[in-house]
Structure formats: structure tokens, C-alpha cells
Amino acid sequence: MTRSSPLHARSLRGWLAHLAATERLAVARDGVSLDYEVAAIAKKLDGRQAVLFPKPGGHSVPIVSGYVAARAWIAEAMGVPESELLHCFRDSSEKPTKWTEVSASQAPVREVTIERPDLLKVFPIPRHSEHDSAPYITAGVIVARNPKTGAQNVSIQRIQVKDGHRLQALILPRHLSAFHTMAEEKGEALPIAIVIGADPLTLLASQAVVPIDQDELEIAGSLHGAPLEVVKCLGSEIRVPAHAEIVIEARVLPGVRELEGPFGEFPKTYSPAGQHQVIEVDRVTHRRNPIFHTIVPAELEHLMLGAIPREATILGLLQRSFPNVLDAHLSLGGTCRYHLYIKMKKRRESEGKNVIMAAFGSHFDLKQVIVVDDDVDVHNPTEVEWAVATRFQADRDLVVVSGAQGSPLDPSTTLTGRVDGMSAKMGLDATRPLSYVGHTFTRVRVPGEDAVDLDKVLNPNPASVLDTFLKGQK
Ligand code: MN
Q1: Fewer CB near the last or first residue (10 Å), C or N of the chain?
Q2: Cα of 240 to ligand 1 centre, how many Å?
């Protein structure tokens, strides 16, 4: 594989310079408030421009938001066309690239060290949604080591900052939580490093759905097509990206839980308050003049980071059993988690239903699956709806499974007011029959419509022509 990411995608600063040069980085005026105003402005520009706040709330550390907020931008960072995005991500997850370690003096993230910092004083930490309990670190990429094997794990968890020394985090039962349980069983704290302001592909790699003990920083290396440069933390054996902006060295405490939440989450609803893990901060290292990153919850940056790794994994799993599955897309309206559109070239009648069942087995978050033929664009919700309108009959093509495991953040999985994550699954086979009479299911096309070049066929001076025509009509 000779592909590699462009050099400007290797650090946050390089990437911001590239976005700025292509009119995709807005700069706010000084003094925007950390309470909601940063989030409101970033939300307004969501998916169109990233935004830099030079002095948010009078703080000397700037904030950036929205720098991985479009599929096209992510493909660009990888150096591939958008159509190759999922394939590239899947290939990188399957063929990780070991990182290379650099010394502290070669690591920009080690330019400045602060012991026992008060995070609320050191960094501008915003408050995002109306009913959030506190300011939150929303773009904290947490690196930890398996206490038994030493293998690293990388994931993003929301972190509540009511107090700048003692944080609370919701760590859902995946790899980081397994590491914490191992440490906790021995009565020990779990050392972690919270990385803020990593390059766009390291952020994306943190969301890979891969087995425990696969270090997501090695996937970041493969996404870049070059080993990621890492540096060892001061207080632990954890290796962190050397070109990140900020690293918070901390520990998840054993046997302690504190109130965390409520917090506005990816489904654009609130996840309720609960007793969650507690993190004690030891030190901060950062670049000179660091940039703090915040992700506005439920907006495109949040959703894209979740969607692409999931789509790549689900597509890979489906294609093992069904090589005729061509594409998979988690729709925006389905919060990039719950609704999956699958494009396939059906080989046998009713195969669509088998694909629906396989899809539900691939990830418990999936709630609705729609399967369409290869003449439908799964990235266009209007086309998918058209397929349902013209190729689907509810009494024949609908699959419903009740009472399965669903997303614990889906508010509809409750009848009592408490979200329990128990969810029905709905599959719609919107593929047409393999054989049909005449043109019953043929999509209407105008011969040559795709080849029309408007620059060639339209008159560049319409006014003069229209003048002669319309005068005569008076
Ligand atoms: Mn993992």
C-alpha cells in the first residue's frame, strides 16, 4: 500500500492551516462566552466551517471546534476519494501500523508541564447544552493500558468538569471500562492520558470498532500510511501522540463513583445523571500556545466520528457473508447510529431479509435497517424513501423483532420513564423482485441525462435571446 495522508493531516495545526487556506476555518471575535455561546456559534457553522475562538471567555487558550465535520474532509485527510473512505478505514483497522516512539525533547506536546493543575483555570472548558450539569471535556481522547497485557486502548468519553482537579466520566462497558475493572479488582487506580487536539485521523481511529488489546493508535498509523509518532507519559507507561496539543495525565479511581450528568448526547436528547467513574488529575503537558478542542454534542463532528468507523465495520461484517452487499450508510436522521441503509445486488429472492438479520447481529445500536437495490443511492435519504415507496409492502417485506438489546441512550426504549435499552428491531426489504413483467420496476431514465454538460449546451448570454422572444409575446 503506497497511499499516505497529506502532510497537513498529520497534526491539528497543519490541518487547521489547510482548512483556513480553503475557506473552511472561521475565526470568532474575542470574548465569546464559554457558557453556551462557543457551542452555539460552532453549531451554526456545523459541517460548513470549523471555527477558532481566539480568546473564549477572556481565556488566553483558544478553542477550535468542527474540524472533522464532513465525510469529504475525512476522505481528504486520508488522501482518498470519498467513495474509498470506508474501504480505507476498514483496511487500516485490519492492518495496523506500529507507532514509533520519540523522546520528550522531540515531542511538541511536552513543551510545557504543569503539576497538579486546576483544569478550569488552565483551559477554556465550555458548557454546551441547556441542561448539561457542568462544563464538559467532549473531545478528550483517552489512552489507557490493559493492566494485564500492557496493550493500549483509545476511546473518547464525556468528562464532567465541576472541579478542575477531580472529574467524572461516563465510561460505558467497553474496553476502557474492562481495564478499569481489572485495576479496581486489585484496589488500584487506572492511569490514563486524556489527549486533546490530535490530528483528524487519530480522532477518527479512536472510534474504531476493533477487539480489545488492539491499540487504536496503530490504526491511526495505517490511516496516515506512516507510523504515528508517540511519546511516553511522565507518570505512566502510556504512549500518546507526540504532535497533539494537550495531554492530561490522570487516574481513574478504584471503588469511587460520583454523580455525573445530565448531558446532551448524540441522539440530541439528554442522558440522565448517574453514579459514574471518577478521575483525579495529576498533571498537564501541552504545546506552547496550545489549542483546546471541543466537540459540540450531537452535531456533525460528533456524528461523523461515530458513523464512519461503524459503517466500515458493519460493511466488512456483512460482506463476509454477503459479497453482493455493496455499501452501508448510517443516516443522519437516525443519529448516525440507529438507522442503517444497505445497498445490495440481490442474487436470490428474499435474500434481503437475510441481510437484515445479519445487520442486526453486527451492532446492538441498530434499530432500523432498510435494504435497497444497486440502483439506489444509500447516501441520499430521498432515494431510500423512494425505494420504500415503490418496492416495499409492509405485510410481505417487513421484519420485526421485539425485545432485543438496543442503544442504552435511545430514549424511546422505555415505557416507565427510565431508559432500559430494550428495543424492537425493524427491517424493511425494499428491493424489487428479481424478475418482473415489462418495465414494472425499471427506474425512469432519460437517455443521455447523465452526460449533459450544461456549460456546453446553455447559452452564456440568455438575456439577448430572451429579449427577442419575450418582446413578441407582449
Ligand atoms: Mn478498543
Answers
A1: C
A2: 15
